[in-house]
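Incident log, structure service

09:12 report received: a user says their structure output differs between two submissions of the same chain.
09:20 pulled the input from the user's history:
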Amino acid sequence: MLDDLIARVARLGQEKFAPRAEQYDRDARFPFENYDDLRAEGLLGLCVPKRYGGLGADFATYCRVAAEMGRWCGATALTFNMHACSALWTGPLADDLDLSAEQREELEKLRTVHYQRIIKDGAIYAQPFSEGSAAAAGKAPFGTLAKKAEGGWLVNGKKIFASLSGAADYYGILCTEDRPERSMRDTLYLAIPKDAPGLTVTGDWDPLGMRGTVSRTLILKDIFVPDDAQLLPRGVYFKAASAWPHMFMTLSPTYMGIAQAAYDFTVQYLRGETPGQPPIRRRMYPTKQIAVAEMYIKLSQTRALFERTIDAAKVNPSKRERLDAYATQYTIMENANDLCRLAIRTCGGQSMLKSLPLERLYRDSRCGSLMLPWTAELCLDRLGRETLYEAGETDE
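09:34 re-ran on a clean worker, output below:
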């Protein structure tokens, strides 16, 4: 199945996604046409379990397919992550958790609603996370609040850098139950429809890179959603975040794909095989050969970490496996940009033209280290602390 999925995405990427990527970037426009193609191929249901009509991709399969998507259009792969996680988190990852019989029964009812929307209606789900606070890093409750009301929830708050703003059919909002004493254990995961009264998309979107994600701000004002709008039962998101930490690594495949694309471009360019460019070969220069060798080594090292870590991902990982996840996330995000840097230096001034993809790859790759909840800085912070302290240890 994996080979077939990657081949399907590669075909879409070569024929459709790559030719469109430049214009999406220039206009900071969401890749609607790419999503039409994904819908037609049944790929919106990539992580929906097979018994619900989806393709049944597990965590590692998703990561490999998403990396191939990122090779052709970073913005499409990054936004697809937000959609796919709505099924991945509520499907195979939730099935691994230690849940009560009542929670499993409720989970089954809830996810059936959302999976039907994806499979039958072709619905797109977003996953707004950031609020400009410590919540997205897992260090505080979310500031967006959901107050229990008769038959559902009343939601108020704000999400920034909300990818797919104005493009998604449903926004999977992470929020905190509004109680006198708020806790991360009270996190709710609610699907809010795009046309819900009280939902506003606001602000401009003119960033350095990942311009096609259109990650504008969402304002939520007294939005009522019914109980079946929950994507996970109450309390289950916190269990997942604690027991399945690799769930926060799903952004990294996009940047693994970008790293591969930078290497691919460099080889193609030096061989004089870049579409639309004169067939001038530059491969005979020793400095170019050495640079490509260095790129190959860095790419191979990065991919080896990526492959090992996604295959080791599981519920309740060991300390070593958790630390490896942080190290892998950091390595991919930093090395993707470094590979793009090497590619530009090696290919020279022509490669900086906006008519060629390398300039866009460089800008997109720089965004990876800033991606919550595991930014490069947070990965270093957690690695340093968790290698030196065991759970519950202090210096007091």
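09:41 both user submissions now match this output. Likely a transient worker issue. Closing.
09:42 reviewer note: The mean pLDDT is 96. The chain has three domains: 2-124, 145-234, 244-388.
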